[in-house]
User: Fold [acyl-carrier-protein] S-malonyltransferase from Triangularia verruculosa.
Amino acid sequence: MTTGLLRRGLASRFSHNATCRRPSLAPASRQTPSPPLLPAPLQHHRNASTTTRRNRPKTALFFPGQGVQKVGMLTPWLEAFPTTAAPIIQEIDHILGYKLSSVIAHGPSKDLNLTPNAQPAIMATSILILRILEQEFGFQVDQRIDFTLGHSLGEFAALVSSGYIEFEDSLHMVQKRAEAMADATKKAEEEYGGEYGMVAVISEPPYMQQLISAIEEFVGYASEGGKSESSEDKSPIDQVLIANVNSKNQIVLSGNIERIKMLVAHVRQFLGHDPRAVRLKSDSPFHSPIMKPAVGAMQRILNGRSRVEGREGEDIVTWPGKVPCVSNVTARCFGSKEEVKDLLARQCLETVQWWGSIKYLDQEEKVRRWVGIGPGKVGRNLVGKEVGMRGKDTVKGGGVWAITDPSEIEEVLRGLEETEGLVEELEGEE
Assistant:
């Protein structure tokens, strides 16, 4: 379905009354004229009534991390939903203090790919898509979602979506986090020399745990918190860490590139296994001890007060949130306001336990529906591979979807609607 078609005829399922719509982030005077109605197949979705959690399969909402940015990624949303998108884009530029929207719209890619631009761009685009779902389709996270999570940077969008942090505060934190990460990398390069970055290592699932253990032994970190506690006596040139455990057959190494090459050679020699190594397009070694200065920057912000008008003087973190959110560091839900502040600050340094998070929700919490929101489909592919679904899967009682473009809204909303009652049917068969 093209964006043009998407704008021509939808009237109705998710906004049955005014309370379904969140207020715009910008004053009403900045609103642009209403767009044409969206297409007939989507008429059914704009006014969907809310569904109680006990009547449907458990559902998780997830958001992407760095690397999915693309020049022009806001344009389809602005064209399809100008009334909603335009004021949010203006608000994004206002919060950041410069026209990030121009960098996203026109590039060039080398500018958008810079960490201080890429991270705010991805997070802001993810929330813009969510706001469009809320305002145009009455999609209510606290009514339709049971858990939220985000991959690294995506955790900031997850915390916004589930009510722990306001969008303005979160986007400001992402901006300062990205600047601190870029500065930490520049300092390491200037002081120690060398080239820094990230490398994905792809293995066969049976070898993964052995591979992780061998790498942890080689680099000397083997427990949660190990990076922050054990890196004091190592120079950045010697620091290589597992940045992400993404799936049952993929991890990401972060640090000095030459040192990473040595580590991969060590694994191949002593494990008798030949994993595939792929350099990622990252200008910084995220989730490595080189990022330690960024932890301090995050701690200072999180211990401060909200920047949001009307909340000045209030704590930046709201507790409890509306929906449980899973931490990257522990692969479990945040348990307190203090834990949100601690783990969110440490998150840029510690390993992203993405695989553990998905396994926890899938196997222990019995989540059966997964909805990705934001640019790119990397997150959907990682989730789908782990839970064994892509799109709607009535046999397994749910599905895995992603909304990265307006043309995908229909499939996702229809898939959610068609799987609403599967929990009752499957329970009745047992």
Summary: The first strand starts at residue 58 and ends at 63. The mean pLDDT is 85.
